[in-house]
Amino acid sequence: MAGRTQFKYSRLYLNNINVSCYAQSFGPLVWEFGEIDATAPMCDEAKGYFPDIASVTPTVVNGIMDNSAASLFTALPDAGVSHTFTAAIGSRAAPVQGDPVFCGRFQRSSSSHGDSGGLTLFNINFDQWDSDYIIKYNKPWGVLLSPNTFYTSPNVNTSTGVDDYGAATALGGYMIYHVLTVDGTATLKVQDAATNVDGSFADLSGATTGLTDWLTATNYGIVALGQTATVRRYLRYQIVWGTATYFRVVLSFVRRTSLQH
Amino acid sequence: MTANTGRTIYKYTDFRVDDSSGTLRSIPINSLSVVGITWDEQDMTQWQDAVKNALPTFPDAPIEISGAFDTSAAATAGTISGSHTVLYNLAGATTPLSLGVFIGIRHTWESGEPVFGITSTAANGYWCSRYTVDVANATYSARFVLYPGSASPAWGTTAIT
């Protein structure tokens, strides 16, 4: 449902971990551009600015110190590395297809321990986008295509998709994924369509992991399209099964809507 | 209704900005920065002067807003659209935007009542330099500055479009 919401309906994924149950808060989620003063004082009526290079960061994850096997502290203890990050913001319910997401691959500058009201904390502080994973996009806001969902073979997605922009675009974009559990090979991809009916959907060229052995491959990542790639109006996830019999995944797509993004 | 004159309160203020397709939308706000033209001053005071004195340098008109994070569908200006629905495509995009702060005088804004802003053209208008979401409080904040060479926004009494 659209409208206003509360923090408790957000979910957070770092690499192949759902850290929602191990964090008290995160953010703020920042997307900003420095303002380069381009004023011609003897001519212009007022000060004017051009955008500098974008700065994108999720800032901090305020985690709970917890040494359980799947906890933030146990799974991701070290700073000086980067994490694939997706924050899904549900609208007065757990996130579903079409809900907004803030995504990226960010450098983790430090981890810090502290306490809040007596609770021992484990915080992750984020810096800028990881230089080793630069893509030609700066926009972090997209839409959720597959919420944290458990799929079983041979399930094929025949559902309708998401209308995230109201029109097709020809400026590319990127998909970002977190595979949380799987038992073999499969292909994860994004499909698009001009009409929001099952039979109209086809593979969005380039928006695919290819057939991947998820038992050995990295279970999270970003696949970026070319900056002039056409992305039709409606989007959905799709899985092509290999040897895998189950697959839990969070998949999002960020559509580029401006040349400055 | 006809335009009122006199005093008013905040709840009759409507903030409107173009979305990424150039359609003006009203978005929810719960704070608004100083509205109007601000001038830096250049101190001209000399030791021999009887009083400190200054000259205005150059006008600036940044606008900062914040409010509830909202994914409601886009609606005609005058009816609230979702803040995220409008803002999430705007940051950094340099197509000049129309922006207007409509100050209703003890009722919903009517033509004849104050409005500050600018109607965009290819070379005139605002752009969004920052869109930040505080998920913990389910709020957003955004900042808008003028495009280089843009005409100055101004106070008026007719609608920004």
Give a summary of the structure in a few sentences.
The complex is a heterodimer of chains A (261) and B (161). By secondary structure, chain A is mostly beta strands. In chain A, 2% of the residues lie in helices and 52% in strands.
As a percent range, the share of strand residues of chain A is: over 45%
Order of helices and strands of chain A: EEEEEEHEEEEEEEEEEEE
Distance between the termini of chain A: 27 Å
Low-confidence stretches of chain B: none
Radius of gyration of chain A: 19 Å
Integer average pLDDT of chain B: 95
**Rg for CA atoms of chain B:** 18 Å
Shape of chain B: globular
Residue runs with pLDDT of under 50 for 5 or more positions of chain A = none
**Could you give a short account of the major beta sheet of chain A?**
11 strands, antiparallel
What do the pLDDT scores of chain A average to? 94
Describe how the helices and strands are arranged.
The complex is a heterodimer of chains A (261) and B (161).
Chain A: E1 10-14, E2 17-18, E3 23-26, E4 29-37, E5 49-57, E6 60-64, H1 72-75, E7 82-89, E8 100-116, E9 119-129, E10 141-152, E11 162-163, E12 173-182, E13 185-193, E14 202-208, E15 212-213, E16 220-224, E17 234-241, E18 246-255
Antiparallel strand pairs in A: 1-2, 1-7, 3-6, 4-5, 6-9, 7-8, 8-9, 8-10, 10-18, 11-17, 12-16, 12-18, 13-14, 13-15, 13-17
Chain B: E1 13-18, E2 24-26, E3 31-32, E4 38-43, E5 54-60, E6 63-68, H1 83-87, E7 99-103, E8 115-118, E9 126-134, E10 139-146, E11 154-156
Antiparallel strand pairs in B: 1-2, 1-7, 3-6, 4-5, 6-10, 7-8, 8-11, 9-10
Fold and architecture overview:
The complex is a heterodimer of chains A (261) and B (161). With 261 residues, chain A is mainly β. Chain A is built from 1 helix and 18 strands. The model of chain A has no long low-confidence stretch (mean pLDDT 94). Chain B has one helix at residues 83-87, and strands spanning 13-18, 24-26, 31-32, 38-43, 54-60, 63-68, 99-103, 115-118, 126-134, 139-146, 154-156. A 5-stranded antiparallel sheet of chain B has the order 2-1-7-8-11, with no helix packed on it. A 4-stranded antiparallel sheet of chain B has the order 3-6-10-9. Chain B has a two-stranded antiparallel ribbon with strand order 4-5. In chain B, a hairpin with a 5-residue loop joins β1 and β2 (24-26). Classes of the chains: A mainly beta (261), B mainly beta (161). The interface between A and B is large, with 48 and 44 residues.
